[in-house]
What we know:
Layout: E1 3-10, E2 13-22, H1 27-37, E3 45-56, H2 58-73, E4 77-81, H3 85-94, E5 101-103, H4 106-109
Parallel strand pairs: 2-3, 3-4, 4-5
Antiparallel strand pairs: 1-2
Helix pairs in contact: 1-2
Amino acid sequence: xxxxxxxxxxxxxxxxxxxxxxxxxxxxxxxxxxxxxxxxxxxxxxxxxxxxxxxxxxxxxxxxxxxxxxxxxxxxxxxxxxxxxxxxxxxxxxxxxxxxxxxxxxxxxxxx
Length: 112
């Protein structure tokens, strides 16, 4: 399955909407998109809308974690919005729910 990625600015935040599967084959695309968003030296607030993600393996989680770390190093942040139940379970089991800020509603995260 393919990974769909769309990015838009919403005020001071960048909203990245994902759809499909994040796995060994699609993670490089996600990595490239996140690197592009985080390429400057200025702090960036990124909200990753995961409502359309059907599957995410450890490769995908590592890409998100690395982007989170980079955003924090630059004085910004990366938040996850509306992850489906299966991904919430992964976040819980791995303890990553304490690392990421997890938002229930991507519209609220975007300030809409």
